[in-house]
Amino acid sequence: xxxxxxxxxxxxxxxxxxxxxxxxxxxxxxxxxxxxxxxxxxxxxxxxxxxxxxxxxxxxxxxxxxxxxxxxxxxxxxxxxxxxxxxxxxxxxxxxxxxxxxxxxxxxxxxxxxxxxxxxxxxxxxxxxxxxxxxxxxxxxxxxxxxxxxxxxxxxxxxxxxxxxxxxxxxxxxxxxxxxxxxxxxxxxxxxxxxxxxxxxxxxxxxxxxxxxxxxxxxxxxxxxxxxxxxxxxxxxxxxxxxxxxxxxxxxxxxxxxxxxxx
Length: 263
Fold this sequence. Notes:
By secondary structure, the chain is mainly alpha-helical. It has one domain. It has twelve helices and no strands. The protein is globular.
């Protein structure tokens, strides 16, 4: 029971980010599953995907009660644009990437994460020069390319990539960070479902059936955390969210820099 209560606690803590920022929290949950609960990496990845799906789904549901869904519906083109690239990138990452490519990708993404973190942390100065409106063809091309990079990155690390999706939406489509978080959740869902489908097709999900109770506790905790995080949106300004996401990106960059791909 103590183990399950810890699962509930960590579920709440990580999912607060889902509701507040618009991410699944996979990057933060995975080390907890491996180091705290002593799961093998593959088991942790599969459990992580399931809990991320719960977090993303309920975060979007609760955020819609705070922000509404009108903005998400109005920006359906942004979702389709990035999703088209990310699904293609996910396919490439799974089927063609070699270890050398992965190492190169990690270096590129680390630099990119650090760049984005400083852009967000210094958004007052960066955006003070005026909001640059990209021409539509350039938006489409940039969105597709960014989506491919996000898809490759996500498939290799077993995450939804919300930390990359949100800044991409902000910078390319000039969307407010709160709405960008909701759009990120919508884009993340198919990515997570694709990962679960791959494991199901390979009959690997049966390896975590014995952990059903722990996943239920962590899932319920994630629902509670998503509810808390979504309601915090009423009190946290967009400016503060820029700082929070910038800090998360910087932390993710340092974590990824010390991550060594397993051959």
